Amino acid sequence: MRTFAGNLYKDDLEGDNIGVFFGTLAPMHVGHQAEIYKAAALNDGAVVIASGYTGDRGDQMGLPVEKRFRYLREAFSDESDIKIDYINEDNMPQMPDGWDEWTRTLVATVKRNIVNQDAKITFYTGEPDYKVELEKRLPQTGQFKVSLMDRTVLKISATEIRKDPIANWDYINRVFRRHFTKKVTVMGSASTGKSTLVRRLARTSNSPFSEEYAREYQERSNVSDDELIVKDYIRLIQGQYDANSREINSPANNGLTIFDTDAMVTKVYADMWLDEADRAQLQPLFNNTISEEQIDLILVIPPVTPYVDDGFRNMSTADEASRWAFHHALMRVIDEYGFMDKVVLLDAKGDSDDPYGYYARYLQALDAIQERTGFNIKHLE
């Protein structure tokens, strides 16, 4: 196992004075950023080092140190005087017994990222205990010093963020936000009001939303459902995944993103229209994409509304029996991939003023989002 790896996309830092900021960074928040910028501003450049081990507080929430390194490298990709690296502590003694080896690795990691090996190196930490431990072990050559940062300026706790990321959303670095985003997908057969519901839920919660990529692709390509071939499905799978990912990574992301369909819906159409050999070609891509999506809530609309021919879907699937067959096939696919515990069936009935239940399902969906994701949506009963 590799102990540490450097940022492959930046030159080593030049200069006679180098700042170093290190920590668990699970996640990085705006307080960390302020400290990193201080280290960079007071020196010719700064090395930022994420440190961790298998089972640490970051790994326990799906942020192993290698992923934190990748997120950090992305977060500072446009900062030429900030270099990112990480230390994997798996093969070191656990703290407090690991300080000697950890300090040696820390120094080696810094030096592998700088040009001038004799540069003055200042380590910045907000923990008084860390300052004491490092000063005991750093070489007493005059090259190294440890500076204690004042954290009273930005009182932000990564622990509090981990406990309740949505309540602390504004403090999480934008790259790290994708890890905490609550992802809601709306699914159903054709003409159930999915797209309208997605748009209205997103605007009610002030959240970003994706649109159904298949509609865009098929209209642009002027191709109907029964004409799609394997290469079209590859583009549909990736196109919808990319559309959903763009909303997750959008600056408008407030902790909740809402998607109009995903790869599981595409799989149902592939199962309907492709032969066995073609479906076999697509299966690995479906498996990989669906496993990567990590959906928090699936809102399924049954085909209880009148079919409206908008010229998009093949009319051979417009009758009631075909729409219910699609619905049952969708539920089987959801079950096959182990997401049934994420499903809420939007089956609320409307009154005489809402004969097809559009408004009733809208309210039901809002309640489901609030209950299942913890995202607070205030609406009138």
Feature tags:
381 residues; alpha/beta; 6-stranded mixed sheet; 4-stranded parallel sheet; 13 helices; 15% strand
| Computed CA radius of gyration, to the nearest angstrom | 26 Å
Find the count of extended strands (DSSP E, 2+ residues).
10
Mean pLDDT: 90
Task: Write the H/E string, N to C.
Answer: EEHEHEHEHEHHEHHHEHHEHEH
Separation, N- and C-terminal Cα atoms:
56 Å
Residue stretches low in confidence (pLDDT < 50, at least 5 long) are none
Characterize the overall form.
elongated
Helix content: 40-55%
Q: Tell me the number of helical segments per DSSP (H or I, 4 or more residues long).
A: 13
Tell me what portion of residues adopts beta-strand conformation.
5-15%
If strands are numbered along the chain, what order do they take across the biggest sheet?
1-4-3-2-5-6
**Helix vs. strand class:** alpha/beta
Largest sheet: 6 strands, mixed
Structural account:
The chain is α/β, with parallel strands linked by helices and 381 residues long. The protein has 13 helices and ten strands. It has a six-stranded mixed sheet with strand order 1-4-3-2-5-6, with helices on both faces. The chain has a four-stranded parallel sheet with strand order 8-7-9-10, with helices on both faces. The longest helix has 19 residues. The N and C termini lie far apart (56 Å).
